[in-house]
């Protein structure tokens, strides 16, 4: 409402000064619609308002007749037609003239939808910006279900809209309701409708399997008919105006905890539109017994993806690397991902399980997988040395069996024997091992003592490897004639 004196000023400018509506609006600082409303309330017929002559007046009859015959004719084409007939005005001004005469489709009226208790739930996603996560930033999506009868709202936030998350969110909503609506009404989401030809709809088979498990029926709205699911659309607008503004949160879990409290403490305390004496929460309490019961067994809602494991024991999923046991390399595994966990299966066997990370480029490792890989490498090196020792010193097998019976560390025994083999040679070590076995000695120290007793005080001759730069390569040696030497060894 505007002050009474301002209304009087508008009327005076119209009757006394004969100003146009837009001139009055600019002069008094109000919208031109407000000026029209004031003049109508004072009995002024707007059709009789004085209008200045226009250069388009001689062509208005032609414009109206043409638009009556071709209602969707573009203003640019109509401008070319009227320009050929002598119109001197510019194209921009002509567009506003066409807008005055173009036939307008009358506003469509809708019948208010009523639903029985427990009959329908309307489902939709809403985008709410982004959320910082360790390793990056992810889009933040709100999953919203509104029960059409009671207007009870279920709200949870997620970091993606994949099929597994979509079904998992449904399961959380049904658990919150304590039952399942008979009909789930959707917009034409890609996770719901795969193809549509008029009223013929091909639903996502995974959604159909989920709905069959819960004994409910999915339905899709008509194309460009948002009013059919107006309750969830209004619910999302309500969330944007009542829940999100001036709110802070520490992370996704904290945000969802606040969303749950808001649904129970704020949204459910609204007055119910069907009966203003009841709140939404009280109407929901009456609707809850009419919902379908929850199935006994939960539905597996995890995303399923086949992943290839290379020579490095990690599986790549959603931009991150998750460790697997070292004996699962060079094969394909199945990744099952929920919003909180990632499981890796080899057939039906779960070989790895990790907490899910939502960042990018992160490496998630299980210490047991790393320890297993290190132990396998250490064992492989020990087996390699053992094979070399068994080939060079055949008697060492008996010595190792005896050492194992006494409880000695076989890795240390093998390492000590290999050092003796490198220093003294296979024949010396073989003879020492045979003597040690004959004496009942079953440890590497005894073999080393026998070896040291057998060798002379002078250390054995060791081969010296010259640096590569000092090595003679491709040297041609020219033999000398033996006749230059005295056969008896004396001077010539």
Identify the CATH architecture of the largest domain: 2-Layer Sandwich
Low-confidence stretches: none
Name of the top-level CATH class of the largest domain? Alpha Beta
Q: What is the residue-averaged pLDDT?
A: 84
Give the biggest sheet.
Answer: 5 strands, mixed
Query: What is the CATH superfamily classification of the largest domain?
Result: Ribonuclease H-like superfamily/Ribonuclease H
How many helical elements? 16
What's the gyration radius in Å?
A: 44 Å
* Helical content class: 40-55%
As laid out across the biggest beta sheet, the strand order is 3-2-1-4-7
Looking at the structure, the CATH topology of the largest domain is Nucleotidyltransferase, domain 5
Number of strands: 16
Given helix and strand content, the structural type is alpha+beta
Number of domains: 4
Q: Choose one word for the global shape.
A: elongated
Throw out a few tags for this protein:
4 domains, alpha+beta, 492 residues, 16 helices, Nucleotidyltransferase, domain 5, four-stranded antiparallel beta sheet
Explain how this protein is built.
The chain has 492 residues and is of the alpha+beta class. The chain folds into 4 domains: 4-101, no CATH class; 120-290, Nucleotidyltransferase, domain 5; 303-365, no CATH class; 372-454, no CATH class. It contains 16 helices and 16 strands. The strands form 5 sheets. It has a 5-stranded mixed β-sheet with strand order 3-2-1-4-7, with helices on both faces. The mean pLDDT is 84.
SSE inventory with pairings:
Elements: H1 4-15, H2 21-28, H3 32-41, H4 60-69, H5 75-83, H6 91-101, E1 120-133, E2 136-147, E3 153-158, H7 163-177, E4 183-186, E5 193-197, E6 200-203, H8 205-214, E7 217-220, H9 230-243, H10 252-265, E8 271-272, E9 275-279, H11 280-287, E10 303-309, E11 314-317, E12 320-323, E13 331-337, E14 341-346, E15 349-355, E16 363-364, H12 367-392, H13 396-406, H14 410-424, H15 426-438, H16 444-454
Helix pairs in contact: 1-2, 2-3, 12-14, 14-15, 14-16, 15-16
